Amino acid sequence: MTDVASDIGQRGVQALRCPVCSAALDIVEQGLRCAHAHRFDRARQGYVALLSGRGNRHRSDTATMVAARRRLLGAGLFDPMARALARRIPPEAAVIVDAGAGTGHYLAAALDAAPAAVGIGLDLSKYCARAVARAHPRAIAVVADLWEPVPVADAVADAVLSVFAPRNVPETARMLAPGGSWLLVTPNPGHLHRVRADLGMLEIGADKLERLHEELTAGGLHVRHTESVTAQAPLDAGLLADLAGMGPAGFHRTDDELRHAARVLTADRATIDVGIDVTVTVAAATPA
Fold first, then answer.
1. Comparing 274 with 135, which gets the higher pLDDT?
2. How much of the chain, in percent, has pLDDT values that exceed 70?
3. 8 Å CB contact between 15 and 155
4. Is 77 a member of any domain?
5. How confident is the prediction for the chain on average, in pLDDT?
6. Overall number of domains in the chain
7. Residue 205 falls within a domain, yes or no?
8. Is the C or the N end of the chain the one with fewer CB within 10 Å?
9. Where is the Methyltransferase domain (predicted)?
């Protein structure tokens, strides 16, 4: 391991905690271990699974879903959103956490905006973790359950990203450093409105943003800035199928069903309008 890689690894591990007992973790051969001898091996694909062992009932992205997401992100449709997120990252940030990191696409953009930062990409899917491990030289990939105590230390994150991902308000508030920012991306009502129904994608509640703000306020956080990011791009049938297949519709419809629906759509609706709400919140007080 090079000195640079060693420094990144050490700083990243210092920001992590044991998912079983919350003790600090140390680097050992082939993985991590806490003072209470809980050990977590590093997978050959470059990630470490920090799970409590209690199990969970949540679905995680499959290899097929991750491949679809990588193709769609590679086509550039969501680049305006990635750039908007990156603009909100403090250049002096030391630790950036992506909670529900997916492929690591947005974490990589955030790390490019903060040259000295270490990124921690958390996702329940091992296939996402494999992608995060390759997404950026300063990214550390961790398999973790966001509905459990998150294996990140108190008050260490200068920024937390949640991009179309589960929101654990108490745990995020705990992770945030004083003055840190939580960058939340949620779909506006117009997000993918021309294709959602035909591709079997979930509808968006009209009061979604209002409920989000109430949730944040109840967690001791407040909204500092809100902006909308819109983008349009022509998509062929393959990318339209990927658009649905990378999300919950991928659990409920077969690949053939999605591709058939996409071919029908392509005839007159090859362009979609993406509306994104980027909400920045700050910790109201230093975590205890």
1. 135
2. 73
3. no
4. yes
5. 81
6. 1
7. yes
8. C
9. 96-180
* Selection from 102, 187, 120 nearest residue 156 by Cα: 120
Please determine, for residue 288, whether its predicted confidence score (pLDDT) is greater than 60.
no
**Cβ–Cβ under 8 Å, residues 43 and 126:** yes
- Tell me whether residue 18 is in a domain: no
Q: How far apart are CA 117 and CA 112, in angstroms?
A: 9
Q: What is the pLDDT of residue 102?
A: 94
The pTM (predicted TM-score) of the whole model is 0.85
CATH number of the domain enclosing 137: 3.40.50.150
- What is the distance between the alpha carbons of residues 134 and 38, in angstroms, rounded to a whole number? 26
Confidence band of 4 (pLDDT split at 50, 70, 90)? very low
Q: Which domain holds residue 108?
A: 46-283
Q: Which helix (H) or strand (E) holds 123?
A: strand 118-123
Is there a domain that residue 32 lies in? no
Q: Report the distance separating Cα 153 and Cα 14, nearest Å.
A: 8
Give me the helices (H) in the chain, please.
Answer: 3-14, 63-74, 79-87, 105-113, 126-135, 169-175, 208-218, 237-245, 249-252, 255-266
